[in-house]
Amino acid sequence: xxxxxxxLTADQLDVLKEIGNIGLGNxxxxxxxxxxxxxxxxxxxxxxxxxxxxxxxxxxxxxxVACATLRIEGDxxxxxxxxxxxxxxxxxxxxxxxxxxxxxxQLDEMGESVVKEIANVLTGSFLNxxxxxxxxxxxxxxxxxxxxxxxxxLSTSLVAGGYIEENILMIETVLFEEYNYxxxxxxxxxxxxxxxxxxNALGLTIN
Amino acid sequence: xxxxxxxxEIQVGIADYKVAAAPNKIITLGxxxxxxxxxxxxxxxxxxxLHIMLPDSTQFKNVNKxxxxxxxxxxxxxxxxxxxxxxxxxxxxxxxxGAQMFSGMDKKxxxxxxxxxxxxxxxxxxxLGIKILAEELGGNRGRTxxxxxxxxxxxxxxxGSPIKEI
Lengths: 207, 166
Known about the structure:
The complex is a heterodimer.
Chain A: H1 10-35, E1 39-50, H2 51-58, E2 64-74, E3 78-85, H3 86-96, H4 109-134, E4 138-140, E5 144-149, H5 150-161, E6 167-177, E7 180-190, H6 192-201
Helix pairs in contact in A: 1-4, 3-4
Chain B: E1 9-11, E2 16-21, E3 25-31, E4 35-41, E5 46-52, H1 70-83, E6 92-97, E7 103-104, H2 113-127, E8 131-137, E9 143-148, E10 154-157, E11 164-165
Parallel strand pairs in B: 1-3, 6-8
Antiparallel strand pairs in B: 2-5, 3-9, 4-5, 4-6, 9-10, 10-11
């Protein structure tokens, strides 16, 4: 994680946004294949935010969210987080199970598996795209899952993943499926060293 | 006619603390593995709420926010309470949080951080000679904690359970 956002230039943030777009574009394609539906994914925003700002962007601190998080090992140690609000998580389950929207009323063990599997697929294709572009080796670990208050889930995921710094890189993601859109937030959390490796691999000089 | 005096609910963010007096309330939202510590002096109805994230600051090189850690945050809030006239021997501590929010098979994911936060919080309070009146720690649910400075009662909100007073 970077100590403050001044260390990255607007150009570097643009590069990260582009990496996010390419990675998540690939992820959207995988999800579309998995669901057999047309899925669009957009990256409206890439920026460094504090943990509290990140929470405010997702919703209220007591809002119920489903969160899957995966640590990434290899050349770029990092952690990814997928956070879906309750309605989006339930709808994802309906979509994946081929059920009518609104069928799933609560997130049970099956729902947990669905969210974890979606996170697995999205992370895998996200990392594949970046790996191809950079020749860096990034290996996702098994997903961890929580379904509870946003504040509790997000803070715990970072601490438990070993990230305690102030700022995190947030790549905001919105998934669209036809007219019923699912709002998900994607966070990519890493250290300054790892970001430098990414920039170096892309042939960008630092500072 | 005088309008009713608006009651303030003072919010404490993550890795932060607030101190206030009756008739206010102090609230912190969404404690997961974090631990919320309330300290209350019933005689002068002054109290505080601290929201810690990690047990031990000595494990880290950069400590930019002392309220993030149990070992630094508790002495800090105690100092501020004493400045406001609270007396240490009268202080009543109540603790909430320290849950294990995540499930899964990643062995490097630190699952017991909530437990470690809870243990360190108890240890620091004990070393300062502050008595713990009530605890709502552990489990696997997030909690919201509200300290009523009129009564010293702490209200705990959890998703899927009735509101609890400790």
